[in-house]
Every structure is written in structure tokens, then in C-alpha cells.
Amino acid sequence: MKKYMSLWVAFMMLLGCLGMASGLADGEKVELNYMTWNTEDTYSPLIVEAFNASQDRIHVNYLSEATKGEAFQSKVMSLLAAEEGLDILGIYSNELYMNYINLGYLEPLSAMMTAHNYDTEGMGDCVNQLKVDDECYALPHRKSVEAIFYNTEIFDEAGIPYPDKLTWEEFMDLAKKLTFVRPDGRNCVGAAGDIRRWAVDEIQAPAAQYGEAMTDDELPHFKECLERLYRLFITDKSTMDYAEMVAVGNGGMKFNFINGEMAMFILSDFALTALVNGTDIPDFKWNITYLPYDPEYMEPGTSYGKVSGTGITTFCKHKEEAFEFLSYLCGPEGAKIIASKGTLPAYTNDEVKEAFRNSMAPGIDVDVFTNSKPQDYIIHSTKAPDLIEMSRAEIELMLIGEQDIDTTYEKWNAQRKEILGK
Amino acid sequence: MQRSGKQLSARARKQRIVGYAFIIPNLVGFVLFNAYPTVYGLVLSFMRNKTLREYTFVGLENFQQMLTDKYISIALKNNLAYSFTTVPATILLALLCSVLVYNLGRKGGFFRNALFLPHITASIAVATVWKTMFLPDKGLINVILHQFGISNTPRWLISTKTALFSIGIVSVWQKLGYTMLFILVGLQGVPKELYEVGDLEGATGWKRFRFITFPLISPSLFFVLITNMIDSFKVYDLILQMTEGGPANSTIVLVYRIYQEGILRLNTGYSSAIAMLLLGLVLIVTAIQFVFERKWVYYSDAA
User: Is A69 on the interface with B (CB under 8 A)?
Assistant: First the structure.
């Protein structure tokens, strides 16, 4: 009897193990962990909530971490090393995207996209921008487009008409005019921009407006981009001191913009969310216009931007379900929620455009973002981290006045070629 | 003469067991959180990671790579410059402050607490406040310097020539109170009778300090020298928060490089090799200090 009893127990245990291996009990949902950085908290939890409500098979848990102090990256790294607890991952930067791919942590999605007949029509070129060696490791959920945000009160104060489709020359002249000290001693600078994109880490962005990429053999217009920065920072001093920019960060610059100490602010659409949700000054008057352009080489409305993607980890146990969520996040449903919070989603249709327009106060020319023609500035190379690190060091030397334009360009170009093995 | 283990009485054996029981929690913590990660880091330094879990043995390749990595040589130079300026400055200032606070007696309590305050302040707050004070045009320091008629003021954190020095100033300010406390304890342990004897022998001022105070507080000074030196090689948080290694890599140090390679680029094998370089450097500097210990540190029970 004892022998049969033991066999029965062993059989039941085997069944139990098989049950665990095969997946879930009846009625139990597949649990997925989705992690992204905390500035996406404005819309991502709402998408997760809507997706969970629409599902009876899948449940997504939302996690986010601050990028400040690299908490997000440290947490992601721990989860990747453990190879558990992370199924869907928001890609914070191009540098990290390349690192995750290099280490084999992002699932190639092309086969799944084909199998699911995934429709990318509403995404324009966004999917291609995330391709590395013809493989897609993430689907785009949002895109950024750069434009000029301007404080209308400062323009009124200076008696200058509001900017509209400026050339770069006009922009710099205007920045100089709008740099002044008020009778009460308060300063106003003409222009500034997101410190990472505009000046240092992503210096390839302005060159991308000419359709040039850091991986090209030559970048004939890169030096012109440097000259513009040099004029604003060193010659005209029509922007904030670089030291002050570093010290106060984008948050501090936004504060200066709102408080009438900065006339024009070059930012992406993502700042709309911050301005709409974060401005508790009811009288603050602002608007948006197109990024300045170079009339010799491009049409008005040409901008630069990049897409942000979300991928599936290679160790995710439920990839099909994860792809289902990804399709929701990056498709029309997710896009509508993202747009309703004043951020441009990668997917666009009339309904999404309407939601984006409705997210803004009346009078804000939000169509600037949907009508701009952004050029992709992502560095499509596994050498991106080295290129960014090198560029930052060289450009910083110029912006703090320790290196002239020619030396900066020559050193930058020589090191760029060395890194790329050209 | 001590008896051998076998000859110990039952009571002594019991006491010994109790003693071991008391150190077990600390020992477990040390093994788990210090010894094991260090040994694991050493093993990883000879590996290259394919993923964060798959490693291949590459021998000394990571160490060879360090020889050609220009950022390592910059970091190493910065580390040495930082440590060999901030540590002596901290100790000298702390010594001066502790003598002043000691001489103030009970009235010195306020200054002691005020000087200790930076040590318990969150480094993010310290970094934020100092970053603002170091601003070239609007910062408090340059505004004061302008008031004194100095027109060519330093650009502090925004110059490759002064950025590391500026972080050093913050570090000295932050560690001054903590270092001072140890020296103060040493000063309080100096028997007053020795000063009386010194007075009778005609020792005043510098001689009194040189021949009575300094030898007796030298164990405290040695302790703060060792701990501050090790601490200075591990500098990271101030740099991350104040300059992020800039401008133009002028403030990168080895720990920052470990962070860049290990956390940002996920090259855990290579970052472990840099960590081993740092460990070796700290061990060498500490060993040198112990070699010279007998030349200047006086232990009263040595005789």
C-alpha cells in the first residue's frame, strides 16, 4: 500500500511540475512587467490601465524609475543580470538601445511583426529609425520633433513681432536683440535649448537637419552647426552661460523661460507636456514656431527628431503576449492616450492628431509639430556610446571657451573617423 | 603567559564561544557584502561578458586594454591629484579647527556641531548648493570676489583647469568636521600634566605642539590619514552630481569610469578590471603609509 501511495504522490508531483511548465491554471492571467523611465508616467500608466481593462488573458504591471542619478539604468541592469522580472522595456536612449542589442537582451521583432501582419503604415519612417542591421529590436511608441517655444511677453516687451519660420541667421540675430538687462536688473537671454540635444551629447542633431549622420564619411555642414553654437555662447553671449546651463539643467532653464528670463527655447514636443502640466503660472503666455532652417539646403519646417521605442527582453517567457501589449502601446490605442497628454506618438492618424490638438490650450500653434518634417538624428551604430562621449568632451571645450571652432572640428572629425574605423 | 587552547578552562572556552557568537553577524556581513564581491570582481576582471551572465575567460586582456584606454590614464591622474591635495588639506584644516575648538572648551560645542553638519548633509543637497555658488557670473563666491575688486575670477566647475580643484574644495568642506572629531578625541586624551611639565621646561607655542601634542595625537592623525585617503580614492557622488566627469573629462576618476563602463555600457568584465586597479592602488598607498607609520606615529604603550 505504501508503495502505491508513494507512486501516487510522485505521479501527482510530476503532474504539478508539468502544469507549472505548461503555463497557467484556468482563468489565470499572464503577468508581464513593463518598465520605463519616469517622465513617461504622464501617459504610460494610463495605457497599461486601458490595456489591462481590455484583456482577460494578460495583465501588465507598470514600473518606472527616475533617469536622474541613473536609477533607471541601475534598476534595469539588475533586472537584466537576473534575467527575470522584466518583460517589456522602454528604451531611454540610443546609447542604451545599442548596449542592450550588443548584449543580446532585446528580442528581434521582425519575424513576429511579419507573423502578426503588423501594420506600420501609421508610423511613417519611425520603424526604420529603430532598425539595426535591418533588424527591429523595438517598436516606436513616441517621436520627438524640435521646435522653438517662445515667451510672447518678452517679444511684446521688446516690441518685436513673433517669430515665424526663421532662418538660422534670423534666429541668431533675434537672439542677440532679445538679450538685454531690464531697468530692474533682471536679465533676459535670447535663446537656449535642451542642453543634451542642442549643445553637447547629441550634437549630431543639428547636422541631421541637413540629412547628415555622424557615421557618414564626411559631414560638410557640421562645422556650420558648431559656428552657430560658438556665436550664441561665445561671440554674442545671447544664450545662458554654459556653466549656468549645466548647473540648473533643463528644469532650471524652463523656470527661466516661464519667468521671463529667456525669450526662445528650442525643445522637443515632450516639453509641451511639462509646460502644460507643470506650469502653475496662469498668466504665462507662450507659443510655438518651427525650428530655424538653412534656406540654401532645406525647406522651412525641416526639423530634427528621434523616435523612442519599447522592446521585449530575450528572457521574457511570454513573448507573444508581450508583443500584443507592444502592439497596443505603439498602435492607435496607445497613440491616442499619448497624444492626449501633449506628447507626439509615433503612430498618427486623424483621431490621434485631434487628440494632440485638444491637449493644448487654444491659441497654441500645436500643428507645428505635426507639420514639421523631422530628420532622424539617432546614431545608427554600435559605436554610438564612444561617439557621444568623444563629442561631449570636444564640444564642451569649445563652449567653455577653451578651444576654437577649427581645432574643435578637426579634433572631433579625426576622433570620429578613428572610432568608426574610417 | 597565555595558556594554549587545550589548556583553557571551561569558563574561558565559553567566553571565547560567546565572543565568536558576537562577531558572527558582522563576519557574515563582511563575507557576503565585502569579501565575496571582491573575489567575484577579481574573477570577472579576467573575463569579458557576452551578456550580463555569460562570460568568457580573456586572461589579461582587460588589463591590457586599460593601458591603451586614454580615459583610464586621465582618471588615474585625476585620482592621484585629488587625493594628494584634498587629504592633506582636510587634515591640516581639521587639525587647526580641532585645536581652536579644544581651546574654546565648552564654548567650542557650537563650532564643533557647525563643522560636523556638512558631513551629515545629503550629498545631493551639498552638490546643488555648491554648484550654484560656483556659477561664474551669478555665483556667491565670484560675487564676493568681485566685491573685493577681483575682476578675473575663476570659472570654477566650468574650466578644465579648476573643475577638479573646485570639487576638492567641497570635499574638504564636507569632511572637515568628521576628521576634526577624531583629532579632537586625540587632543582630549593628552594628559594635562605633560603640558605642566612642558611649561616647567620652558616649552611654549610651537615647541609645546611639536614635542607634546603632535606625538600624542599622531595615532589619531594616522587613522584619519588612512581613512581619508581610502575615501578620497573612492570619490564619485560629488563628481556625478557636480560635473558628470566634465568639462571635457577633466574630472573623471576611476570610480566614475567603473560606473560608466559597468552601469552605462554594461561592460562588467572591463569595469571589474578597473575596480581591481583601484583596489591595487589603494592597497599600495595604504601600505606605503604603514611603512612610514613608525617614523612619525607614537604609541604611548609601545615601550
Answer: yes
